[in-house]
Amino acid sequence: MSENRKLMSIREAIERYVNDGDVLYLGGFIQQEPFAAAHEIIRQGKRDLTLSKCAGMILADQMIGSGVIKHLITTFTWNPLPATAHCFVRALTSAVPQKIDVEEYSILALNLAYFAGSLDLPYIATKTLLGSGFDRERNKTGATNRLRFEKSPFTGERVCLIPPIKHDVGIIQVQRSDPYGNAQAWGMLGESRYGMQSCKKIIICAEEIVSSDVIMRDPNRTLVPAFRVSAVVEEPWGSHPSSMAGYYDMDWPYYACYERETRTEDRCEAFMKDWIYGVKDRKGYLELLGVKRLENLRPDVYMSGSVPYGRFTSHFRELNSNES
Amino acid sequence: MVGTQWPIVVSLLARHLHAPNLTICYEGGVVLGRTPDRIPLFTGDPVINASSVMLGNSFDTLGMVLHGGKADMALLPAASVDRYGNINTTCIGDYASPKIRFGGSGGACDFGSLAPKTMIILEHDRKRFPEKVDFITTPGYLCGKESRSQAGLKPGTGPYAVVTTLGLFEFDEDGEMMLTAYHPTASVQEVRENVQWELKVHEDVKQLIPPSAKELEILRHRVDPLGMYLRNARSLEGVSLHIMAGS
What we know:
Number of helices of chain B: 6
Number of helices of chain A: 13
Oligomer: heterodimer
Radius of gyration of chain B: 19 Å
Largest interface: A-B, 76 and 71 residues
Number of strands of chain A: 12
Protein backbone atom coordinates (compact mmCIF):
# COMPACT_ATOMS: atom_id res chain seq x y z
CA MET A 1 0.00 0.00 0.00
CA SER A 2 1.39 3.41 -0.86
CA GLU A 3 1.95 5.86 1.95
CA ASN A 4 -0.58 8.35 0.64
CA ARG A 5 -3.42 5.95 1.18
CA LYS A 6 -2.72 5.52 4.89
CA LEU A 7 -2.00 9.13 5.82
CA MET A 8 -5.31 10.90 6.43
CA SER A 9 -7.14 13.26 8.77
CA ILE A 10 -8.64 11.98 12.00
CA ARG A 11 -12.08 12.73 10.59
CA GLU A 12 -11.50 10.50 7.60
CA ALA A 13 -9.89 7.74 9.72
CA ILE A 14 -12.87 7.63 12.11
CA GLU A 15 -15.39 7.77 9.24
CA ARG A 16 -13.70 4.91 7.46
CA TYR A 17 -12.64 2.60 10.25
CA VAL A 18 -14.94 3.10 13.27
CA ASN A 19 -18.47 1.76 12.83
CA ASP A 20 -21.52 1.90 15.08
CA GLY A 21 -21.58 -1.10 17.41
CA ASP A 22 -17.82 -1.74 17.18
CA VAL A 23 -15.66 -3.02 20.00
CA LEU A 24 -13.20 -0.13 20.25
CA TYR A 25 -9.86 -0.20 22.03
CA LEU A 26 -8.38 3.14 23.07
CA GLY A 27 -4.76 2.94 24.17
CA GLY A 28 -2.73 4.99 26.57
CA PHE A 29 -2.43 3.86 30.15
CA ILE A 30 -3.11 7.19 31.95
CA GLN A 31 -0.48 8.93 29.83
CA GLN A 32 -0.71 9.47 26.04
CA GLU A 33 -4.44 8.90 25.72
CA PRO A 34 -5.96 9.47 22.23
CA PHE A 35 -8.20 12.43 23.13
CA ALA A 36 -8.19 13.90 19.60
CA ALA A 37 -9.59 10.64 18.23
CA ALA A 38 -12.11 10.26 21.07
CA HIS A 39 -13.45 13.78 20.50
CA GLU A 40 -13.83 13.09 16.77
CA ILE A 41 -15.76 9.88 17.55
CA ILE A 42 -18.07 11.91 19.78
CA ARG A 43 -18.48 14.62 17.12
CA GLN A 44 -19.39 12.02 14.50
CA GLY A 45 -22.06 10.69 16.85
CA LYS A 46 -21.06 7.03 16.67
CA ARG A 47 -23.52 4.80 18.52
CA ASP A 48 -23.56 1.65 20.64
CA LEU A 49 -19.80 1.31 20.90
CA THR A 50 -18.13 -1.04 23.32
CA LEU A 51 -15.22 0.95 24.73
CA SER A 52 -12.28 -1.08 25.98
CA LYS A 53 -9.94 1.10 27.98
CA CYS A 54 -7.75 -0.22 30.78
CA ALA A 55 -7.46 3.10 32.61
CA GLY A 56 -10.85 4.70 31.99
CA MET A 57 -9.93 8.17 33.24
CA ILE A 58 -11.85 11.22 32.03
CA LEU A 59 -11.52 10.12 28.42
CA ALA A 60 -13.93 7.23 29.08
CA ASP A 61 -15.98 9.65 31.18
CA GLN A 62 -16.43 12.04 28.23
CA MET A 63 -17.44 9.21 25.94
CA ILE A 64 -19.97 7.96 28.49
CA GLY A 65 -21.30 11.49 29.01
CA SER A 66 -21.78 12.00 25.29
CA GLY A 67 -23.77 8.78 24.96
CA VAL A 68 -21.64 7.06 22.30
CA ILE A 69 -20.95 3.90 24.29
CA LYS A 70 -23.24 1.24 25.69
CA HIS A 71 -20.68 -1.15 27.14
CA LEU A 72 -17.48 -0.31 29.00
CA ILE A 73 -14.56 -2.67 29.56
CA THR A 74 -12.24 -1.14 32.16
CA THR A 75 -10.26 -1.57 35.37
CA PHE A 76 -10.95 1.87 36.84
CA THR A 77 -12.55 5.12 35.73
CA TRP A 78 -11.81 8.27 37.70
CA ASN A 79 -10.33 11.74 37.53
CA PRO A 80 -6.72 11.48 38.74
CA LEU A 81 -6.86 14.59 40.95
CA PRO A 82 -8.16 12.29 42.58
CA ALA A 83 -11.83 12.97 42.08
CA THR A 84 -15.00 11.35 40.81
CA ALA A 85 -15.55 10.78 37.09
CA HIS A 86 -19.08 12.20 37.20
CA CYS A 87 -20.46 10.87 33.89
CA PHE A 88 -19.31 7.34 34.73
CA VAL A 89 -20.99 7.55 38.14
CA ARG A 90 -24.21 9.09 36.74
CA ALA A 91 -24.48 6.34 34.12
CA LEU A 92 -24.03 3.58 36.70
CA THR A 93 -26.10 4.98 39.54
CA SER A 94 -28.92 6.70 37.63
CA ALA A 95 -28.65 5.65 33.95
CA VAL A 96 -27.85 9.24 32.81
CA PRO A 97 -27.49 9.98 29.92
CA GLN A 98 -28.09 6.28 29.36
CA LYS A 99 -27.52 2.96 31.07
CA ILE A 100 -24.18 1.35 30.29
CA ASP A 101 -22.97 -2.14 31.07
CA VAL A 102 -19.61 -2.34 32.76
CA GLU A 103 -17.26 -5.26 32.40
CA GLU A 104 -14.59 -4.77 35.06
CA TYR A 105 -11.27 -6.44 35.63
CA SER A 106 -8.11 -5.82 37.61
CA ILE A 107 -5.27 -4.35 35.56
CA LEU A 108 -3.32 -7.60 35.41
CA ALA A 109 -6.46 -9.55 34.49
CA LEU A 110 -7.33 -7.17 31.64
CA ASN A 111 -3.74 -7.28 30.38
CA LEU A 112 -4.04 -11.07 30.31
CA ALA A 113 -7.36 -10.85 28.43
CA TYR A 114 -5.72 -8.62 25.79
CA PHE A 115 -2.71 -10.94 25.65
CA ALA A 116 -5.02 -13.91 25.10
CA GLY A 117 -6.80 -11.87 22.41
CA SER A 118 -3.50 -11.03 20.70
CA LEU A 119 -2.41 -14.66 20.56
CA ASP A 120 -5.92 -15.96 19.77
CA LEU A 121 -5.83 -18.21 22.85
CA PRO A 122 -9.10 -19.74 24.06
CA TYR A 123 -8.33 -18.52 27.59
CA ILE A 124 -5.47 -17.83 29.96
CA ALA A 125 -5.17 -18.91 33.59
CA THR A 126 -4.14 -16.68 36.50
CA LYS A 127 -4.00 -16.55 40.29
CA THR A 128 -5.30 -13.00 40.59
CA LEU A 129 -9.00 -12.16 41.25
CA LEU A 130 -9.56 -15.31 43.32
CA GLY A 131 -11.94 -14.65 46.21
CA SER A 132 -12.68 -11.08 45.14
CA GLY A 133 -16.05 -9.65 44.10
CA PHE A 134 -15.11 -10.65 40.55
CA ASP A 135 -15.14 -14.28 41.73
CA ARG A 136 -18.78 -15.07 41.06
CA GLU A 137 -18.97 -18.32 42.97
CA ARG A 138 -18.13 -16.55 46.19
CA ASN A 139 -20.03 -13.33 45.86
CA LYS A 140 -23.68 -13.06 44.88
CA THR A 141 -23.27 -9.54 43.56
CA GLY A 142 -20.75 -10.98 41.06
CA ALA A 143 -19.25 -8.66 38.51
CA THR A 144 -20.67 -8.69 35.00
CA ASN A 145 -17.65 -10.29 33.47
CA ARG A 146 -16.92 -13.47 31.62
CA LEU A 147 -14.52 -15.11 34.07
CA ARG A 148 -14.53 -18.76 35.09
CA PHE A 149 -13.03 -20.29 38.21
CA GLU A 150 -11.79 -23.88 37.84
CA LYS A 151 -9.28 -26.38 39.20
CA SER A 152 -5.98 -26.59 37.34
CA PRO A 153 -5.75 -29.96 35.51
CA PHE A 154 -2.04 -30.01 36.39
CA THR A 155 -1.85 -29.04 40.06
CA GLY A 156 -5.47 -29.14 41.24
CA GLU A 157 -5.21 -25.60 42.58
CA ARG A 158 -8.01 -23.13 42.01
CA VAL A 159 -7.38 -20.75 39.11
CA CYS A 160 -9.21 -17.96 37.34
CA LEU A 161 -9.71 -18.47 33.60
CA ILE A 162 -9.87 -15.32 31.53
CA PRO A 163 -11.27 -15.48 27.99
CA PRO A 164 -9.68 -13.36 25.26
CA ILE A 165 -10.79 -9.82 24.49
CA LYS A 166 -10.56 -8.83 20.83
CA HIS A 167 -11.31 -5.46 19.31
CA ASP A 168 -12.71 -4.45 15.92
CA VAL A 169 -10.59 -1.35 15.91
CA GLY A 170 -7.94 0.25 18.13
CA ILE A 171 -6.56 3.78 18.30
CA ILE A 172 -3.40 4.92 19.99
CA GLN A 173 -1.57 8.23 20.20
CA VAL A 174 2.21 7.86 19.94
CA GLN A 175 5.26 10.12 19.71
CA ARG A 176 6.16 9.24 16.13
CA SER A 177 5.25 7.09 13.19
CA ASP A 178 6.45 6.80 9.63
CA PRO A 179 3.85 7.37 6.88
CA TYR A 180 3.22 3.62 6.68
CA GLY A 181 2.31 3.21 10.37
CA ASN A 182 5.49 1.87 11.90
CA ALA A 183 4.67 3.50 15.21
CA GLN A 184 7.05 4.19 18.08
CA ALA A 185 6.07 5.02 21.63
CA TRP A 186 7.90 5.46 24.88
CA GLY A 187 6.86 6.40 28.38
CA MET A 188 4.69 4.34 30.73
CA LEU A 189 3.11 1.86 28.33
CA GLY A 190 0.74 -0.01 30.67
CA GLU A 191 -1.36 -2.41 28.60
CA SER A 192 -0.89 -0.69 25.22
CA ARG A 193 1.29 -3.29 23.50
CA TYR A 194 -1.20 -6.14 23.94
CA GLY A 195 -4.27 -3.92 23.69
CA MET A 196 -3.18 -2.87 20.20
CA GLN A 197 -2.21 -6.35 19.11
CA SER A 198 -5.71 -7.65 19.91
CA CYS A 199 -7.27 -5.24 17.35
CA LYS A 200 -8.31 -6.15 13.79
CA LYS A 201 -7.81 -2.61 12.50
CA ILE A 202 -5.42 -0.05 13.96
CA ILE A 203 -5.39 3.75 13.68
CA ILE A 204 -2.15 5.48 14.66
CA CYS A 205 -2.25 9.11 15.78
CA ALA A 206 1.24 10.54 15.99
CA GLU A 207 2.71 13.74 17.36
CA GLU A 208 5.11 13.67 14.41
CA ILE A 209 5.43 11.83 11.12
CA VAL A 210 9.05 10.79 10.57
CA SER A 211 10.91 8.93 7.86
CA SER A 212 11.28 5.16 7.98
CA ASP A 213 15.00 5.71 8.50
CA VAL A 214 14.30 7.27 11.91
CA ILE A 215 12.23 4.21 12.82
CA MET A 216 14.84 1.71 11.62
CA ARG A 217 17.59 3.39 13.61
CA ASP A 218 15.72 2.50 16.83
CA PRO A 219 13.49 -0.52 16.10
CA ASN A 220 13.25 -1.57 19.78
CA ARG A 221 10.93 1.38 20.33
CA THR A 222 8.34 0.23 17.77
CA LEU A 223 4.98 -0.57 19.36
CA VAL A 224 3.14 -1.59 16.19
CA PRO A 225 4.57 -2.48 12.77
CA ALA A 226 3.04 -0.96 9.63
CA PHE A 227 1.50 -4.13 8.21
CA ARG A 228 -0.99 -4.09 11.11
CA VAL A 229 -1.99 -0.47 10.60
CA SER A 230 -4.93 0.86 8.54
CA ALA A 231 -4.55 4.61 8.99
CA VAL A 232 -1.92 7.11 10.11
CA VAL A 233 -2.91 10.54 11.40
CA GLU A 234 -0.56 13.40 12.19
CA GLU A 235 -2.11 14.94 15.29
CA PRO A 236 0.23 17.07 17.42
CA TRP A 237 -1.04 17.65 20.98
CA GLY A 238 -3.53 14.86 20.30
CA SER A 239 -3.33 13.56 23.86
CA HIS A 240 -4.12 16.81 25.67
CA PRO A 241 -5.22 17.03 28.53
CA SER A 242 -3.24 13.84 29.25
CA SER A 243 0.51 13.80 28.71
CA MET A 244 2.94 12.69 26.03
CA ALA A 245 6.36 11.62 27.31
CA GLY A 246 8.98 14.10 26.14
CA TYR A 247 6.38 16.40 24.53
CA TYR A 248 3.95 17.74 27.15
CA ASP A 249 2.78 17.32 30.74
CA MET A 250 -0.70 16.54 31.96
CA ASP A 251 -2.82 19.69 32.08
CA TRP A 252 -3.73 19.42 35.76
CA PRO A 253 -5.94 22.55 35.89
CA TYR A 254 -8.00 21.10 33.03
CA TYR A 255 -8.69 18.04 35.18
CA ALA A 256 -9.72 20.23 38.11
CA CYS A 257 -11.94 22.30 35.85
CA TYR A 258 -13.45 19.20 34.25
CA GLU A 259 -14.33 17.85 37.69
CA ARG A 260 -16.15 21.06 38.62
CA GLU A 261 -17.83 21.62 35.27
CA THR A 262 -19.28 18.11 34.97
CA ARG A 263 -20.87 17.78 38.41
CA THR A 264 -24.35 18.22 36.97
CA GLU A 265 -25.74 16.98 33.68
CA ASP A 266 -26.53 20.50 32.46
CA ARG A 267 -23.08 21.87 33.15
CA CYS A 268 -21.55 18.78 31.62
CA GLU A 269 -23.51 19.35 28.41
CA ALA A 270 -22.25 22.93 28.27
CA PHE A 271 -18.68 21.72 28.77
CA MET A 272 -19.01 19.20 25.93
CA LYS A 273 -20.56 21.86 23.71
CA ASP A 274 -17.65 24.22 24.29
CA TRP A 275 -14.81 21.75 24.06
CA ILE A 276 -15.96 18.97 21.74
CA TYR A 277 -19.03 19.80 19.64
CA GLY A 278 -18.18 23.49 19.39
CA VAL A 279 -14.86 22.97 17.66
CA LYS A 280 -14.47 21.64 14.13
CA ASP A 281 -11.32 19.63 14.72
CA ARG A 282 -8.22 19.39 16.89
CA LYS A 283 -6.86 22.58 15.42
CA GLY A 284 -9.94 24.42 16.65
CA TYR A 285 -9.56 22.82 20.07
CA LEU A 286 -5.93 23.92 20.33
CA GLU A 287 -6.84 27.46 19.28
CA LEU A 288 -9.41 27.52 22.07
CA LEU A 289 -6.77 26.42 24.58
CA GLY A 290 -4.32 29.01 23.36
CA VAL A 291 -0.64 28.77 22.47
CA LYS A 292 0.52 30.10 25.82
CA ARG A 293 -1.32 27.44 27.75
CA LEU A 294 0.11 24.70 25.57
CA GLU A 295 3.68 26.04 25.72
CA ASN A 296 3.48 26.02 29.52
CA LEU A 297 2.97 22.26 29.38
CA ARG A 298 6.29 21.63 27.59
CA PRO A 299 8.90 19.80 29.70
CA ASP A 300 12.54 20.81 30.13
CA VAL A 301 14.60 19.16 27.42
CA TYR A 302 16.05 15.89 28.72
CA MET A 303 17.36 13.68 25.92
CA SER A 304 18.31 10.03 26.06
CA GLY A 305 21.71 9.08 24.68
CA SER A 306 21.74 7.21 21.40
CA VAL A 307 22.58 3.51 21.23
CA PRO A 308 24.48 1.65 18.51
CA TYR A 309 22.54 -0.95 16.54
CA GLY A 310 25.30 -1.59 14.02
CA ARG A 311 25.00 -2.61 10.37
CA PHE A 312 26.76 -5.51 8.69
CA THR A 313 27.78 -4.42 5.20
CA SER A 314 31.28 -5.87 4.97
CA HIS A 315 30.89 -9.38 6.36
CA PHE A 316 31.10 -12.31 3.89
CA ARG A 317 32.60 -9.96 1.33
CA GLU A 318 34.89 -12.76 0.19
CA LEU A 319 31.87 -14.79 -0.97
CA ASN A 320 30.96 -11.95 -3.30
CA SER A 321 34.50 -11.79 -4.72
CA ASN A 322 34.50 -15.59 -5.35
CA GLU A 323 31.31 -15.24 -7.31
CA SER A 324 32.64 -12.52 -9.61
CA MET B 1 4.51 -2.58 44.72
CA VAL B 2 3.14 0.85 45.54
CA GLY B 3 -0.48 1.90 45.02
CA THR B 4 -1.70 5.41 44.48
CA GLN B 5 -2.23 8.26 47.00
CA TRP B 6 -0.83 7.80 50.57
CA PRO B 7 1.33 4.82 49.58
CA ILE B 8 3.30 7.19 47.29
CA VAL B 9 4.11 9.44 50.26
CA VAL B 10 4.85 6.56 52.62
CA SER B 11 7.19 4.74 50.22
CA LEU B 12 9.18 7.90 49.40
CA LEU B 13 9.43 8.73 53.11
CA ALA B 14 10.80 5.23 53.76
CA ARG B 15 13.47 5.79 51.11
CA HIS B 16 14.54 9.00 52.83
CA LEU B 17 14.61 7.37 56.27
CA HIS B 18 15.48 3.72 56.88
CA ALA B 19 15.19 2.12 53.42
CA PRO B 20 17.32 4.10 50.92
CA ASN B 21 17.59 1.06 48.63
CA LEU B 22 13.87 0.30 48.56
CA THR B 23 12.77 -0.62 45.02
CA ILE B 24 9.46 1.04 44.20
CA CYS B 25 7.29 -0.42 41.40
CA TYR B 26 4.04 1.02 40.02
CA GLU B 27 1.28 -0.81 38.14
CA GLY B 28 1.89 0.84 34.74
CA GLY B 29 5.26 -0.88 34.33
CA VAL B 30 7.41 1.58 36.31
CA VAL B 31 10.49 0.75 38.37
CA LEU B 32 11.50 3.96 40.08
CA GLY B 33 15.19 4.90 40.16
CA ARG B 34 15.26 8.02 42.31
CA THR B 35 12.99 10.44 44.11
CA PRO B 36 11.04 12.20 41.32
CA ASP B 37 11.54 15.93 40.69
CA ARG B 38 8.18 16.60 42.36
CA ILE B 39 6.06 14.23 44.42
CA PRO B 40 3.87 12.22 41.99
CA LEU B 41 0.21 13.17 42.30
CA PHE B 42 -0.67 9.57 41.47
CA THR B 43 1.19 6.53 40.17
CA GLY B 44 0.64 7.55 36.55
CA ASP B 45 2.01 11.08 36.96
CA PRO B 46 4.37 11.84 34.02
CA VAL B 47 6.87 13.34 36.47
CA ILE B 48 7.77 9.70 37.16
CA ASN B 49 9.02 9.04 33.61
CA ALA B 50 12.48 10.58 33.83
CA SER B 51 13.02 9.29 37.39
CA SER B 52 12.68 5.62 36.49
CA VAL B 53 15.18 2.91 35.78
CA MET B 54 12.54 1.03 33.79
CA LEU B 55 9.40 2.13 31.98
CA GLY B 56 7.80 -0.99 30.66
CA ASN B 57 4.40 -2.61 30.38
CA SER B 58 2.03 -3.47 33.21
CA PHE B 59 3.11 -7.06 32.60
CA ASP B 60 6.61 -6.15 33.77
CA THR B 61 5.51 -5.07 37.26
CA LEU B 62 2.07 -6.60 37.93
CA GLY B 63 3.03 -9.70 35.94
CA MET B 64 6.70 -10.62 36.30
CA VAL B 65 7.28 -8.91 39.66
CA LEU B 66 4.00 -9.40 41.51
CA HIS B 67 2.40 -12.50 39.92
CA GLY B 68 5.89 -13.96 39.60
CA GLY B 69 6.36 -13.80 43.36
CA LYS B 70 9.24 -11.30 43.32
CA ALA B 71 7.56 -8.51 45.32
CA ASP B 72 8.07 -8.32 49.09
CA MET B 73 5.20 -6.02 49.92
CA ALA B 74 2.28 -4.04 48.55
CA LEU B 75 1.04 -0.68 49.84
CA LEU B 76 -2.60 0.16 49.10
CA PRO B 77 -5.11 2.92 49.77
CA ALA B 78 -8.77 2.01 50.37
CA ALA B 79 -12.21 3.61 50.25
CA SER B 80 -13.26 1.15 52.97
CA VAL B 81 -11.84 -1.89 54.69
CA ASP B 82 -13.63 -4.54 56.75
CA ARG B 83 -13.05 -6.85 59.73
CA TYR B 84 -11.04 -9.33 57.63
CA GLY B 85 -9.04 -6.75 55.73
CA ASN B 86 -11.12 -6.93 52.54
CA ILE B 87 -10.95 -3.66 50.61
CA ASN B 88 -13.74 -1.96 48.69
CA THR B 89 -12.94 0.63 46.05
CA THR B 90 -15.87 -0.31 43.79
CA CYS B 91 -19.29 0.61 45.17
CA ILE B 92 -21.66 1.11 48.10
CA GLY B 93 -24.85 -0.90 47.77
CA ASP B 94 -25.60 -3.69 45.32
CA TYR B 95 -23.03 -4.04 42.54
CA ALA B 96 -25.67 -4.16 39.80
CA SER B 97 -27.41 -0.99 41.00
CA PRO B 98 -24.97 0.84 43.26
CA LYS B 99 -25.96 3.72 45.55
CA ILE B 100 -22.46 5.18 45.40
CA ARG B 101 -19.87 4.26 42.86
CA PHE B 102 -16.06 4.53 43.15
CA GLY B 103 -13.45 4.20 40.41
CA GLY B 104 -12.87 0.45 40.59
CA SER B 105 -9.95 -1.89 41.15
CA GLY B 106 -7.12 -0.68 38.97
CA GLY B 107 -4.25 -2.87 40.12
CA ALA B 108 -5.48 -3.08 43.72
CA CYS B 109 -7.05 -6.53 43.38
CA ASP B 110 -3.78 -7.85 41.96
CA PHE B 111 -1.79 -6.34 44.85
CA GLY B 112 -4.05 -7.82 47.52
CA SER B 113 -4.40 -11.19 45.79
CA LEU B 114 -0.72 -11.79 45.16
CA ALA B 115 1.55 -9.83 47.52
CA PRO B 116 3.10 -11.68 50.48
CA LYS B 117 2.27 -8.71 52.71
CA THR B 118 -0.24 -5.96 52.02
CA MET B 119 -0.26 -2.77 54.05
CA ILE B 120 -3.44 -0.71 53.81
CA ILE B 121 -3.24 3.04 54.48
CA LEU B 122 -6.31 5.26 54.89
CA GLU B 123 -7.79 8.15 56.85
CA HIS B 124 -9.88 6.81 59.71
CA ASP B 125 -13.62 7.39 59.47
CA ARG B 126 -16.30 5.10 60.94
CA LYS B 127 -18.09 4.92 57.57
CA ARG B 128 -14.96 3.44 56.04
CA PHE B 129 -14.78 0.56 58.53
CA PRO B 130 -17.89 -1.63 57.95
CA GLU B 131 -18.05 -5.15 59.38
CA LYS B 132 -18.37 -6.49 55.81
CA VAL B 133 -17.66 -4.47 52.68
CA ASP B 134 -20.41 -4.32 50.03
CA PHE B 135 -18.00 -5.43 47.32
CA ILE B 136 -14.62 -7.13 47.73
CA THR B 137 -12.51 -5.22 45.21
CA THR B 138 -9.35 -6.54 46.83
CA PRO B 139 -9.40 -9.75 48.85
CA GLY B 140 -8.11 -9.67 52.40
CA TYR B 141 -8.79 -12.76 54.51
CA LEU B 142 -12.36 -12.96 53.03
CA CYS B 143 -14.25 -14.43 56.04
CA GLY B 144 -11.21 -15.85 57.86
CA LYS B 145 -7.68 -16.98 56.98
CA GLU B 146 -8.78 -20.42 55.79
CA SER B 147 -11.29 -19.00 53.33
CA ARG B 148 -8.49 -17.08 51.64
CA SER B 149 -6.52 -20.23 50.86
CA GLN B 150 -9.73 -22.11 49.97
CA ALA B 151 -10.36 -19.46 47.31
CA GLY B 152 -7.01 -20.47 45.82
CA LEU B 153 -4.83 -17.63 47.04
CA LYS B 154 -1.36 -18.60 48.23
CA PRO B 155 -1.18 -19.41 51.96
CA GLY B 156 0.95 -16.91 53.86
CA THR B 157 -0.12 -14.00 51.65
CA GLY B 158 -2.61 -11.31 52.65
CA PRO B 159 -3.08 -8.14 54.69
CA TYR B 160 -0.25 -7.41 57.06
CA ALA B 161 -1.27 -4.14 58.67
CA VAL B 162 -3.82 -1.35 58.42
CA VAL B 163 -2.46 2.10 59.21
CA THR B 164 -4.95 4.88 59.91
CA THR B 165 -5.11 8.33 61.43
CA LEU B 166 -6.21 6.67 64.70
CA GLY B 167 -3.94 3.68 65.00
CA LEU B 168 -2.19 0.55 63.78
CA PHE B 169 -4.07 -2.69 63.20
CA GLU B 170 -2.63 -6.15 62.58
CA PHE B 171 -4.33 -9.50 61.93
CA ASP B 172 -4.75 -12.42 64.35
CA GLU B 173 -4.37 -16.11 63.45
CA ASP B 174 -7.92 -16.18 62.05
CA GLY B 175 -7.22 -13.19 59.84
CA GLU B 176 -9.30 -10.79 61.91
CA MET B 177 -8.24 -7.18 62.29
CA MET B 178 -6.92 -6.33 65.75
CA LEU B 179 -5.83 -3.02 67.23
CA THR B 180 -2.21 -3.29 68.31
CA ALA B 181 -1.36 0.39 68.78
CA TYR B 182 -2.99 3.80 68.72
CA HIS B 183 -1.78 7.34 68.20
CA PRO B 184 -1.12 9.43 71.35
CA THR B 185 -3.84 11.79 70.09
CA ALA B 186 -6.40 8.93 70.09
CA SER B 187 -7.58 6.32 72.61
CA VAL B 188 -8.63 2.67 72.48
CA GLN B 189 -12.19 3.80 73.17
CA GLU B 190 -12.11 6.26 70.28
CA VAL B 191 -10.84 3.56 67.92
CA ARG B 192 -13.55 1.11 69.10
CA GLU B 193 -16.21 3.72 68.40
CA ASN B 194 -14.88 4.23 64.91
CA VAL B 195 -15.28 0.74 63.51
CA GLN B 196 -18.68 -0.86 62.85
CA TRP B 197 -18.02 -4.15 64.64
CA GLU B 198 -16.84 -5.39 68.05
CA LEU B 199 -13.15 -4.62 67.59
CA LYS B 200 -10.51 -6.98 68.93
CA VAL B 201 -7.83 -5.19 70.90
CA HIS B 202 -4.44 -6.80 71.51
CA GLU B 203 -3.84 -7.47 75.20
CA ASP B 204 -0.54 -5.55 74.96
CA VAL B 205 -1.98 -2.66 72.97
CA LYS B 206 0.58 0.13 72.84
CA GLN B 207 0.69 3.82 72.29
CA LEU B 208 2.54 4.71 69.09
CA ILE B 209 5.64 6.87 69.36
CA PRO B 210 4.89 10.22 67.69
CA PRO B 211 6.98 11.05 64.63
CA SER B 212 10.30 12.66 65.50
CA ALA B 213 11.22 16.20 64.54
CA LYS B 214 13.61 14.77 61.95
CA GLU B 215 10.91 12.57 60.40
CA LEU B 216 8.50 15.47 60.19
CA GLU B 217 11.19 17.70 58.74
CA ILE B 218 11.90 15.18 55.97
CA LEU B 219 8.19 14.59 55.31
CA ARG B 220 7.35 18.30 55.10
CA HIS B 221 10.44 19.64 53.39
CA ARG B 222 11.84 16.82 51.28
CA VAL B 223 9.01 14.39 50.48
CA ASP B 224 6.07 16.78 50.07
CA PRO B 225 7.32 20.37 50.22
CA LEU B 226 4.41 21.62 48.07
CA GLY B 227 1.87 20.10 50.48
CA MET B 228 0.26 18.15 47.65
CA TYR B 229 -0.82 15.47 50.14
CA LEU B 230 -0.09 17.01 53.54
CA ARG B 231 -2.20 20.10 52.75
CA ASN B 232 -4.22 18.58 49.88
CA ALA B 233 -2.84 21.15 47.45
CA ARG B 234 -3.28 18.65 44.61
CA SER B 235 -7.04 19.24 44.58
CA LEU B 236 -6.15 22.62 42.99
CA GLU B 237 -9.09 24.20 44.79
CA GLY B 238 -9.13 27.95 44.41
CA VAL B 239 -6.68 27.80 41.51
CA SER B 240 -7.81 30.10 38.75
CA LEU B 241 -8.21 28.06 35.58
CA HIS B 242 -9.02 30.41 32.73
CA ILE B 243 -9.78 27.63 30.35
CA MET B 244 -13.48 28.02 29.82
CA ALA B 245 -14.34 29.13 26.33
CA GLY B 246 -14.54 32.88 26.01
CA SER B 247 -12.92 33.50 29.39
